[in-house]
Amino acid sequence: MRVCIFGSGLSALTLAKALVKEKINVDLIYSNINNKINKSRTIGISKSNFDYINTNIVKIDKISWKLKKIEIFTENLKNEKILNFQNNEKQLFSIIKNFEFYDVINKSLINNKFFNKIKLKKKIKDFKDYNLIINTDYSSILTKKYFNKKIIKKYNSYAFTTIINHENVPNNIATQIFTKLGPIAFLPISKNETSIVYSIKGSLSKKQDLINLIHKYNIKYKIKKIGNIDSFELKSFALRSYYNKNILAFGDLLHRIHPLAGQGFNMTIRDIQILIKIIKEKTDIGLLVDSAVNKEFEKRTRHKNYIFLNGIDIIYEFFNFERRLNNSALSKYVKIIGKNSSLNKLLTKIADRGTLF
Ligand SMILES: Cc1cc2nc3c(=O)[nH]c(=O)nc-3n(C[C@H](O)[C@H](O)[C@H](O)COP(=O)(O)OP(=O)(O)OC[C@H]3O[C@@H](n4cnc5c(N)ncnc54)[C@H](O)[C@@H]3O)c2cc1C
């Protein structure tokens, strides 16, 4: 069996590794632009996805930092804490630097006999050797041809990312503050490093504005240095159709969400597990792996991803609405219901597994 993957981002590499582990031949086709791995980006991985990656993809214990608690504050209640997610025995989330994760998977694939990395030189005319073609690349010809119809939402916001160096502290609690400009997250990655993701409505005219805002909302750290600042336009979308015959869209090309809950890549990891399960179910009973896999994949994931996408959007709009009203009644309400331990456990479970079941 042979699969072709277009793109060389995190989704492409993680999926490639999951497939070669099943002894499936993978040709990964990349173009020049596909090497932009950003050093200011970190990724939060939920506990269950962390376990899946560690067992099935690559060992990430050494490059990840475990978080036991996430605290949510709002500026509307004078930076009072409104929610608290905690797990005393194990981690809630782990934070990894994107480029380190990328390097580790890349290295683990290089000498794998089922894996082949091919640089795209010219148009590929013939895909008939492949059972499945999986596209993660926005710039590929397949995207323009088959995957341009989507349900899209533009937030008119930018996410600014950086890493701060600070004095050593026991750094196992992530903090998110819903500020008047948008949510700012402080995501610890070591005793003396914390990643910052600030999603700001509109944009900022100069770098110094962001630096001032970081100092304004930082209550924990004695900052020594603020690293490179990068920015990303924020939008969320889901493709109307996940596949065309045996060509499947995957990763951020398939669905993209607001980073406020750190779930974009977590959704892809869940997709990978479902896709591998479907392929195994077919091959175990001697069925051919073909477009039927894509059909089944869409059937099993589309509704879940759609609900998840909307759930994150509701959280965003909730705090956005309150900010516009300039009223703190909603936050007060969240604070009261957040104290309910059953509801808290429920929300933690959804953030971990993407579903209640
Ligand atoms: C600020 C921020 C914070 C995030 N935090 C988290 C988090 O904590 N947890 C989590 O689960 N998810 C998070 N996400 C989402 C996560 O980063 C993405 O889901 C993940 O990186 C997607 O990987 P990908 O390989 O699908 O896409 P990409 O890395 O975008 O790559 C897809 C393919 O397209 C190529 N490509 C990319 N951009 C272009 C372009 N402009 N032109 C041409 N080709 C291009 C790539 O090289 C690659 O081949 C965050 C996203 C943002 C923006």
Summarize the structure in short.
With 357 residues, this protein is an alpha/beta fold. The protein has helices spanning 10-21, 47-57, 98-110, 141-146, 207-217, 264-284, 291-325, 329-338, 341-353, and strands at residues 2-6, 25-30, 42-46, 64-67, 69-74, 80-86, 93-97, 115-119, 132-135, 150-166, 173-178, 183-188, 193-201, 223-226, 230-239, 243-244, 247-249, 255-256. It has a single domain (2-353), classed as FAD/NAD(P)-binding domain, CATH 3.50.50.60.
Explain what this protein looks like in three dimensions:
The two termini are 32 Å apart. This protein has helices spanning 10-21, 47-57, 98-110, 141-146, 207-217, 264-284, 291-325, 329-338, 341-353, and strands spanning 2-6, 25-30, 42-46, 64-67, 69-74, 80-86, 93-97, 115-119, 132-135, 150-166, 173-178, 183-188, 193-201, 223-226, 230-239, 243-244, 247-249, 255-256. The strands form three sheets. Strands 5, 6, 10, 11, 12, 13, 14, 15 and 18 form a nine-stranded mixed beta sheet that branches. It has a six-stranded mixed beta sheet with strand order 8-2-1-9-17-16. It has a three-stranded antiparallel beta sheet with strand order 3-7-4. Helix 1 (10-21) runs parallel beside helix 6. It has a single domain, classed as FAD/NAD(P)-binding domain (3-Layer(bba) Sandwich). The chain contains nine helices and 18 strands. The chain has 357 residues and is α/β, with parallel strands linked by helices. The longest helix is centred in the C-terminal third of the chain and has 35 residues, at 291-325. Bound molecules: flavin-adenine dinucleotide (FAD). Residues 7-12, 33-34, 36, 43-44, 136-139, 159, 161, 197, 232, 251-252, 259, 262-266, 268 line the site of flavin-adenine dinucleotide. The site of flavin-adenine dinucleotide has 28 residues, from helix 1, strand 3, strand 10 and helix 6.
